[in-house]
Structure formats: C-alpha cells, structure tokens
Design a protein that fits this description.
heterotrimer; A alpha+beta (129); B alpha/beta (490); C alpha/beta (467); A: 129 residues; alpha+beta; OB fold (Dihydrolipoamide Acetyltransferase, E2P); 3-stranded antiparallel beta sheet; 22% helix; globular; C: 467 residues; alpha/beta; Aspartate Aminotransferase, domain 1; Aspartate Aminotransferase, domain 2; 2 domains; 37% helix; 14% strand
Chain lengths: 129, 490, 467
C-alpha cells in the first residue's frame, strides 16, 4: 500500500498539493511513482510562466511509460525543483518530500475540485479493479 | 564480450584493396571550408571488418534462424530468390533520375504492383512512394485533410482512433494537425458502437481502424461503423498492418474504407532488415485518389512514365527525394508474382489456420485467451493475468525465458488494454511441427514457473547478455563511443 | 502453394484440433457479403525460374548506362564485403531490436553507426536513421520547431539552393503542422546564398535556417557566415549535407563559432547502391541539448544483470508506441539494413579512405570541368564538389535524349525547377569514372551540340555508334 498523507490535497490525475501560506507545492503521489516505475527524466514548467487549471505542465518519464502532470490549480510558477532534473530518482525515493515538482502562486484560492486523502484513497482503490 | 570495431582499430591500418588511388593533384577548395581533423572512423583490415560484423550478426535472432511469433509484425519467410533478383546489376546501378526511356524495366514492375494492389484492396488508386507504414498513415490522413479542405469543409479537426490501435495511428493524426479522440473497445473486442455514435459529429474528419484489430479479432460491425462515419461526413482509414489476415479474402474497399496503407514488409514478405527498410504504399477510393502522394507510374500504351503535376494537381505532394523504397517495391512485386491470385488467398487462409491451431493447442494446455468467445484472425492474445498473480511472474518473464529456448518472444504488453498479454502471430510460412514445438515450450515454461519462478525472473541465460539495465541506459545516456569516457570494457 | 509448408494431413489434423470442418469456417465471423473478394485480376503465378527470366530481362532494359547524374544520389564504388555481410540472414531478416538480449548484433552495430555518424558531423549524438535525406530534413525542421518554442511564429528559412525534391517533401510534411516555410533565393552568379540576400530576412522571426553543403548545384556555401547570421537572429542552424563530403569539408559541428545545431542528409553515398532511388537512409545528428527532441530510434550502451556491456534502444518514451498522440514523431522504422551496409562501408574505408573518395570525386570534377571549358558552346556556371551546372545552347531535354542513345546519362535537367537559369544541366562525377569515360562524355556532348536539327543529330548518332 502506497502512502497517502492526511495533510495533503490530491487531484484525480494523481498529483498532490500542499498549501504553505500563499504558495502551493505540487508533486506526484507515491501511487503514481510506483505505477510508473523508476523515473529517468522529468520535464518541468518554465519558472514565471502562468498555468491554467488542468493544463499539461510537466512530464515524468520512466523507461516504459511517460505521464503528463496536469496543473491542479491556476497560478504562476514561482519555483521548480532543479534537483529532480538532475536526479529523477528523488521522485521515486521521496515523492512527498525531496521529490516535489514545482511551486505556484495561485491566482485564486479555489481548491474545491481537489480531493482529500480519504477521497483519493478511495479513488486509487477503485482504479485497481 | 564483444569488442567495438573502434577497439580493433590501429592508427595507420587500411583495407588497401578498397581504397581509391591517391592522386598528386592539389585541392582547389578554400581552406576555411575544409575539415581540420579526422573523423572517428575505425582503421581496420578487410578481414577484421568482415569478421567483426559477421560475428555481430550471430548475436541476433532472425527469421532465417528462429521462429518469430511476433504479433502485429507478420514475420514470415522472406524469399531468397526475390532478394537475389532485386540485386541484379541493372536494378542496382539504375539512377532514380534516369530518363523514363531508361527506366522501363523498373517502371513496369512498379506499375504492375500498383495494379495488383488496387485489385487486392478494392481501391481505385495506389501510390507506392511512402517508405514505411507510418509514412503511409501520414499520407492517408493528409489526403483525408486535403479532401475536406478541397470542399471548403474546414471545421473537421478530429480523428477517431480506437483505444486498441497501434501507437502510430494517433501519432500520425497529430502529425497531420488533427486532434485525436479515443474510442473504447467493448468486452467482445469490437469497437463500442454506442461510444462511437456519441463521439461522431460535425468535427469528425475520419476514423483510423485496423481490421482484424490488434486484438486479433475481426471487427464484425465494420459496415455499421462505416455507415455511421460516412453519414457524419467523415472518412475511414484502414491501417493495413493486419492485411495478412484477409489477403485475397476480404477487401478493405468492400468494407467501406476510403484510404489505407499496406505494409510491404509484413504482408508482402520483404525483409525487416533489423528495423527497416519498410514499404507503405497507400491506396485510395475514387474520391481520394486525386490526393495521392506522387510520383506514380502511368502507362500510356506500352510506355511507362512518371506522373507530373498535370496528372495529379491535387496531390498532397512528395514524401521522399525520389520514388520511395524502390528495392522494396521490386521485392513485393516479385513476391506477388510468385503467389498469383490463388497463392494470395492461401496466405490469409493458412495464416488464420496456423493462428487458430496454435490458440486451440494453448487453450487445451490451460492458457487463457483474451477473447475466448471469438475466432482468432491471423493472430491472437493470451493473457497471463492469473499466472502473474498466482505464480508471481509476468508476461515479460515468459517472453525472456522463451529466448532461452531459441524462440523469439511474442509482442508483449500490446494492446495496452489487455493485462499481461502476449500477442502471438505465427504466419502461414511455419510448419505444424514448429507450432507444436512452440506450444510445448510454453507449457514447459509454465511448469518451470510453478517450480521455480526465479528461473523466469532472471532469464535469459543462454544469450550473449543477461537482462539489460534500461534505467541506467536512459539516465546516463551513452550514445556514442569515445575512447576516454567509455566504461571499463576489460 | 508457394511458401506454405502444410501437407494435406497437417491441415486435416489442425482442423480437427480446432474443431472445424473446413478452413473456410475459420472466417465465419466475417459477414458473408464481405467474403466474396474477386482478385482474379492479380497476375498469374510464376515459379522462380520464370520470374528470374522476367526480372533479368527487365534489369537489362534499365542497365548498361554510364551515369553522370547526381542530384542527391551518387554512384560510388561499394566494396564487395559490404553487401555480402549486410545481407546475411541474421541482419536482413531480423526485426526491430525491441528484445535487446536477442538483438545485440544489430544494437551494437547501430551504436557503432551512431558513433561514426556523429563524429563525421562533429556533433554529439546521432539517431539510428530515418527513411531518406528529404524526409530527414522535414524531421529536422519539426525538431527545430519543437526546440525553439519561444518563437511566436514558426518560420523556417529554406534556400532555393537546397534540392528541389527535398523542398517539396518538406512542404508536404511540415506545413501540416502550421510551420511557415520561407524559400530564400540564391545569387544566380555564384550559385549560393550570400549575406546580402540574408539581410532581407533579418527583421523576420527566424526559427531556423537550413544550410546545404555542398548545395544542390555542387557549390560550397559560406557556412561560417550563414551559421553566425542565423545564431545572431536567435535561429537554429540545420545543416543538410552530403556525408561523404564531410570527410573532406568542414563538418556542421564546426561551422561558425558554435556549430550547426542539427545536421541531416542522405546516407546513400556511404555504401548504398543507386537502386532506382531506394531504399536509402536519412541520418539525423544534433547537439546533446536537443537529444530529447530527436525523433526515431536511438541506441544506448548499458550493462546487464552481471555488469557486462550491452546495448538497448533508449529514450523510447518519446516514441509513438508509448507516447502515442504525444510522440515526437510517428516514425517507427529506421532503415536498419542500409545502416548496416553503411557502417561496414565506413569501417572498410576508414577516415583516410573516405577522404580519398571525396578528394578523387572533387578532382575528377575539376578534370571534367577543364575538358568542358575547351568547348566554346558550353558555359560552366558553377559547382565544385560532385556536380556542376552547365548552360547549353540548345534544349537540355533534347541533349539528354541524344546522349541516352549512346548509353550516357548526361545529367539532370534544371529547366523545370530553375527556369531562371536557362537551358542548364546538372552534371555529376565521382571517383568511379576514369579519364576515358570523361573524354567519351565530352566528345558525345560536343557532337550533340554541334548539330542543331533533329535530322542531322540522327546522323551523328549513327556515326557515334563507332566510338
């Protein structure tokens, strides 16, 4: 069973979101990294670019699969995780910590469409069937 | 350990007999446009080169040496006679821009192949120029787009593709500037007709279908699908990857398709060459034929000539510098001549017989077909979902273990919608004995899995290398050899 | 039936195992009205002996010509060992090397090829090949467009000194994706692009500039100057080059201060016969910054479970079979067999042999040029490597037809693609011709030009058969 921390929010497309004051941090869930297998490449959005909700904004790639990361909330990219560009394994090893992808400053505080840990756990379970 | 050719190189060594004679004349080219250093090419003797590459060839599986039940790839025997005749001096030394009067021999073959392909596909026009299936797909979709545009019908921006389709289908549609919408497959392996109805609309440019599909079953509702698409003003593209299943039996044109490609390297037995060359002629119905890529061979009485802009003013254009993979066209032509109409029908019949026989044998041995209620076409899928769970093995493990028994692995993990699947296509050129042997090996591997799953996890054992680290290959890209940075090859 | 090994007993036993009575029953899921294909128009079956006779006749129809046509396909001597080894069944009848453990021969060869080609271009990486030179240029342009995303409009500058068929191919392939192709003229006196011409485009947004070397006319472009200009205008540089010539000429990676970004072209001159135009192969190399935009197969070196060296297809997640609609390209073949031949060819020639082929080709062209310069009615316009442009005082098509009757293919008529040049002929010579060949060609051309009327030239032809 993959970890799904209670303090985070989730999207249906397997991104996690953490809110720290006016900036949110985005990553992919433990479940997502596990499904993909060992990552070999990560592509991140341009710093200072504006992202729309649902926009394809990053790519995570293993040797057998490549997945798009969809932006879970509209906002401006304020920081990207340079470390994972060099070492994509960090996403596998520590998806909720050192393996974060990027940080954005949301245009508005609209988190309605996001799931809580319980809801996301249910979704993962339903996909297994 | 196989050394690289560069590791055999010694500075100053040459293959003397192959070198041009040096001359004493001076170069008259400007110095600033000349190369200053030597490229990193090996300096070896003729024997060293011949031995090195001959030995490399022995580290390959091939049809000439192994059974290749590779689904969706039609790895049938490639006739030697055909190859030898395509290598005749008159063909090999023939320049592509020769005058028509000096090209009648080749053009006669190309023209006759065009005509035969029209007959077997039920189409009205053929262009031989696409150099592979994917280029044929590109051509076909570009023709669909050109057709709609020629009618001022520019709102159509979407191509429908079943979720079981080859990856090239959506990729080709996108290369032609289209959006792709996936259509789900029903539990019986047919396209989900209700989902299709819901997806079709005024922005539908067309649909791309393989029939029999990549699931190894014939799409029974094809005529209904054609009616739905045509009624909406869309067109049907036939992915000819599985044409071997119906060659001479069923014609895509009769099913309602408007444009298609043919993989000469599959259905017409031209060699795969370790990944190419291929050949992807495109065939089209009357409405779409004016848009075919050029050049095309035209016959006037007893004289052949290449088409000009005047013959095809609406062509989507040229897809290669000359006229496609001419040598492949010649081989396919000769293969068609060796078969004749009866031989072609036998291709579909015996490809289907072999597939259904092998499926029946494997079913009896306890393997699970992905579509147990369906008749197999020229290929079929078994799913190892249960074995994977119970024995902790994967389709990959079985595939790798097969290599130890000197059988090429079937296509794995495609189509994506069947878990732990092996897509098996024996082709018509294999004997019953080979099929029996293959079934026995699979049964044996399953037994091995029950006794010692690790035997499979670590396979293969008998090949030049064990399982390779693909993660390392992708993370630490090593794409060219440099003497200083190469790993320790001791 | 040809290539079907089944005995009657086999068929009977197999049908029994399946549980059907007849082979036709296996098609019972196909609607009846579709199972009536009439293919009787397919030509009747021949056996191998009959086919051999037919094909010998047809090959003889096309053979026996002395070829002075280049224009993108070049006759070079191909050592016997090249195709003897390349057409071994283990290379020729193998599939794409997806099963790496069962394909180490092809994979290692491709890795060696990538090394040779990248080095010949003086760039970091090479893919395992594309279909041909023209489609490789189209892929290079698509790659440049993906790599230069910041541009608001994707605009490619494509000189008219690039092969006209390449330009047609590029237009057919890339304009489907909304990329603008701007064709830029060349200096008709020099036969190449000049700085003055480029300056007219300096206010445009430039995604990439295509630089041919040598160009279609056999003229050497001033590659350093053109490269610098493109880079100053934030455009990428796409080199389209003859790989044979790169053993002698400055390779793309050394052009200007930073080198060309992408190099592509036709691999045919490296060990592939003319063969009516294919199969050939396209090559595509680039700086390592762009490797993820490189379409097609790429082989990487890695280790196996025991730490032993081995080779695999890598960066596959960019490709259509995984990435589907989001792939860098729809391509799924390389021209493996041709690359096999080319790699063996380059190994046999080595760096010195390859350079010698280029040098001899160039010197033969110079020799032919000096012989033509003695003919007062032939004007030599330009061309230094492999080919040159001749202007004739009469119809090029007529001259070509006349020389063809003497079994000489005099060159490629430029009148259709370059009417502004007048009655011009593109003539090619490589290392394969000796001085007697050149003299024969010059004499025959001279005779064809002397006589103007149709009737007289026929008389000449009669005389000429005694040569």
């Amino acid at each position: 069973m993959n970890a799904i921390p209670k303090n985070l929010k989730y999207s249906k497309s397997h991104e996690w979101i953490r809110q720290d004051e006016d900036v949110i941090t985005v990553g992919i869930t433990d479940h997502a990294q596990c499904m993909l297998g060992e990552l070999v490449y990560v592509e991140l959005p341009e710093p200072e670019s504006s992202l729309e909700l649902g926009q394809e904004c990053a790519v995570v790639e293993s040797v057998k699969a490549a997945a798009d990361v969809y932006c879970p909330i509209s906002g401006e990219v304020v920081e990207i995780n340079e470390a994972i560009l060099e070492n994509p394994q960090l996403v596998n090893d520590d998806p909720y910590g050192k393996g974060w992808l990027f940080r954005i400053r949301p245009f508005e505080n609209d988190f309605k469409q996001l799931l809580n840990a319980e809801q996301y756990t249910k979704q993962v379970a339903s996909e297994a069937h | 350990m196989s050394q690289l050719i560069f590791e055999l190189s010694q500075h100053g060594r040459v293959a003397k007999a192959q070198q041009p004679r040096p001359s004493s004349q001076k170069l008259t080219l400007p110095a600033h446009l000349l190369r200053q250093d030597e490229p990193n090419l090996p300096e070896v003797s003729e024997l060293q080169a011949v031995r090195h590459y001959t030995n490399l060839s022995r580290r390959n599986f091939s049809i000439d040496t192994q059974f290749y039940p590779l689904g969706s790839c039609t790895m049938k025997y490639n006739p030697r006679g055909v190859h030898k005749l395509a290598m005749l001096e008159g063909f090999l030394h023939h320049h592509p821009l020769s005058l028509d009067m000096n090209s009648q021999g080749f053009m006669a073959c190309a023209y006759e192949l065009q005509e035969m392909l029209k007959t077997v596909t039920g189409m009205k026009g053929v262009s031989l120029t696409p150099m592979a299936g994917a280029q044929g797909e590109f051509a076909g979709v570009a023709m669909i787009r050109a057709y709609h545009e020629s009618r001022g019908d520019t709102a159509r921006d979407e191509i429908l593709v079943p979720d079981a389709a080859h990856g090239t289908n959506p990729a080709s549609a996108v290369q032609c500037g289209y959006k792709v919408r996936e259509i789900p497959t029903g539990p019986d392996g047919n396209v989900d007709i209700e989902a299709l109805r819901a997806a079709v609309g005024p922005n539908t440019a067309g649909i791309m279908l393989t029939n029999p599909s990549t699931l190894g079953v014939f799409e029974q509702k094809i005529q209904e699908i054609a009616a739905i698409i045509h009624k909406a003003g869309g067109l049907l593209y036939y992915d000819g990857a599985n044409l071997n299943a119906i060659l001479g039996k069923v014609r895509p044109g009769d099913m309602g398709f408007n444009v298609m490609h043919i993989n000469l390297h599959k259905t017409f037995a031209t060699p795969h060459g370790g990944g190419g060359p291929g050949g992807g002629p495109v065939a089209a119905c009357e409405r779409l034929a004016p848009f075919l890529p050029t050049p095309i061979v035209i016959k006037n009485e007893n004289h052949y000539r290449w088409s000009t802009e005047k013959d095809f003013p609406h062509t989507i254009g040229r897809l290669s510098a000359f006229m496609g993979n001419a040598g492949i066209i010649l081989r396919a032509y000769m293969y068609a001549r060796l078969l004749g109409p009866e031989g072609m029908q036998r291709v579909a019949e015996f490809a289907t017989l072999n597939a259904n026989y092998l499926l029946a044998r494997l079913k009896k041995a306890g393997f699970t077909p992905a579509y147990p209620t369906r008749r197999a076409s020229h290929e079929f899928i078994i799913t190892l979902k249960t074995e994977a769970k119970e024995l902790n093995i994967s389709a990959l493990d079985v595939a790798k273990r097969l290599l130890d028994y000197s059988v090429h692995a079937p296509t794995m993990y495609f189509p994506l919608l069947v878990p732990e699947c092996l897509l098996i296509e024996p082709t018509e050129t294999e004997t019953k004995e080979v099929l029996d042997h293959f079934a026995e090996i699979l049964i044996k591997i399953l037994q091995e899995a029950k006794e010692n799953p690790d035997l499979l996890h670590n396979a293969p054992y008998s090949l030049p290398v064990r399982r390779l680290d693909e993660v390392k290959a992708a993370r630490e890209l090593d794409l060219t050899f440099t003497k200083n940075t190469g790993p320790d090859t001791a | 039936m040809p290539f079907i090994p089944h005995t009657e007993k086999d068929v009977k036993d197999m049908l029994a195992t399946i549980g059907v009575a007849r082979v036709d029953d296996l098609f019972n899921e196909i609607p009846d009205n579709l199972r009536k294909a009439n293919i009787n128009d397919v030509m009747p079956s021949l056996n191998e002996m009959e086919l051999s006779r037919l094909m010998h006749e047809r090959a003889n129809q096309d053979g026996g010509m002395k070829c002075f046509i280049g224009a993108g396909a070049y006759e070079h001597h191909i050592p016997a060992a090249v195709w003897e080894v390349a057409t071994r069944g283990e290379f020729m009848t193998a599939y794409t090397p997806y099963q790496a453990e069962a394909s180490q021969g092809t994979l290692q060869l491709l890795y060696e090829y990538q090394t040779m080609m990248a080095s010949l271009m003086a760039l970091d990486v090479s893919n395992a090949s594309l279909y041909d030179g023209a489609s490789a240029l189209a892929e290079a342009i698509l790659m440049a467009a993906r790599s230069n995303k910041k541009k608001t409009r994707q605009r490619i500058l494509l000189p008219l000194s690039v092969h006209p068929h390449y330009r047609e191919t590029v237009k057919a392939i890339v304009t489907q994706q909304g990329i603008d192709i701007v064709e830029i003229p060349f200096d008709v006196k020099k036969g190449c692009v000049t700085k003055e011409i480029l300056e007219k485009y300096s206010h445009d947004d430039v995604t990439a500039l295509v630089i041919p070397q040598p160009n279609f006319f056999g003229v050497l472009e001033d590659v350093d100057l053109l490269t610098e200009w493109a880079h100053q205008h934030q455009g990428l540089v796409i080199a389209v080059v003859n790989p044979m010539s790169m053993s002698l000429l400055k390779p793309p990676g050394k052009w200007g201060q930073n080198g060309a970004d992408i190099a592509c072209g036709e691999g045919q001159p490296l060990g592939v016969p003319l063969a009516s135009g294919g199969p050939y192969y396209g090559f595509l190399c680039c700086k390592k910054d762009y490797v993820r935009q490189l379409p097609g197969r790429i082989v990487g070196r890695t280790v196996d479970a025991e730490g032993k060296q081995g080779f695999v297809l890598t960066l596959q997640a960019r490709e259509q079979h995984i990435r589907r609609a989001k792939a860098t390209s729809n391509i799924c073949t390389n021209q493996g067999l041709l690359v096999t031949a080319s790699t063996i060819y380059m190994s046999l020639m080595g760096p010195k042999g390859l350079r010698q082929v280029a040098v001899n080709s160039h010197q033969n062209l110079n020799l032919l040029k000096s012989k033509f310069s003695a003919l007062k009615n032939v004007e030599i316009l330009f061309g230094d490597f492999h080919e040159m442009v001749l202007r004739l005082p009469k119809s090029v098509d007529e001259v070509l037809a006349q020389l063809a009757q003497q079994k000489i293919q005099a060159g490629f008529a430029l009148t259709k693609h370059y009417p502004e040049l007048g009655e011009c002929l593109l003539v090619c010579v490589t290392e394969t011709k000796n001085e007697a060949d050149l003299d024969l060609f010059v004499n025959q051309l001279s005779l064809a030009l002397e006589k103007n009327s149709e009737k007289k030239s026929k008389e000449v032809l009669n005389v000429a058969t005694y040569f």
